[in-house]
Amino acid sequence: MEILGQIIGILATVITALSYQMNTKKSLLLTQSLATACTCISYLLLGASAGFALNIVCLVRNGCFYYLKEGQKPIYISTAILATAMVVLGAFSWQGPISLLMIIALAANTVFLSLGKPQTLRYSILLTSSMILIYNIYVFTIGGMLNESIAIGSSLIGILRFRKARLPEGEAKKS
């Protein structure tokens, strides 16, 4: 079970990396949903109940975001419901204080995803993926550790790549 859980976790990481190459929001969400399903199975096989339960909610979240357009009012309502569901399921699947990392990270991730601002999401991923990375180290999922490390690196690259252009040094901003 342990080995199969690790293999499926690594498969989830490969699928997640492939999702970054998708050209549309819908194809990205579908691919990430497949990766999340693999992550759920991996956590289940590794006995990581909080990771399993909260990623089930992530599957539902991806489905909601797939069908709703950004900026529509229902997305904010569904965001609040999904973030609340994560807190409730996190309480039911409690593994001790380590569960707080997953609960806070995935609930926050849901809120930041709903905002539709890529640069804000990139900054949030630095924090949320770091929290999930710590959880993955605790439950020892190799695929999970790789996945969050890649997410952190990718976010940093995106932040640098898409930062606002700065004025050359010595050039004052005109009033």
Describe the fold and architecture.
With 175 residues, the chain is mainly α. It has one domain. The protein has 7 helices and no strands. Helix 2 packs antiparallel against helix 3. The C terminus is likely disordered.
N-to-C SSE string, H for helix and E for strand: HHHHHHH
Rg calculated over all Cα atoms: 17 Å
Give the beta-strand count. 0
**Overall residue-averaged pLDDT value:** 85
Q: What overall form do the CA principal axes indicate?
A: globular
Strand % is under 5%
Instruction: Please mark out the parts with pLDDT under 50 across 5 or more consecutive residues, or reply none.
Output: 171-175
Kindly name the structural category: mainly alpha
Proportion in helices: over 70%
Give the biggest sheet: none
How far is it from the N-terminal to the C-terminal residue, by CA? 65 Å
H/I helix tally: 7
When the domains are counted, the total is 1
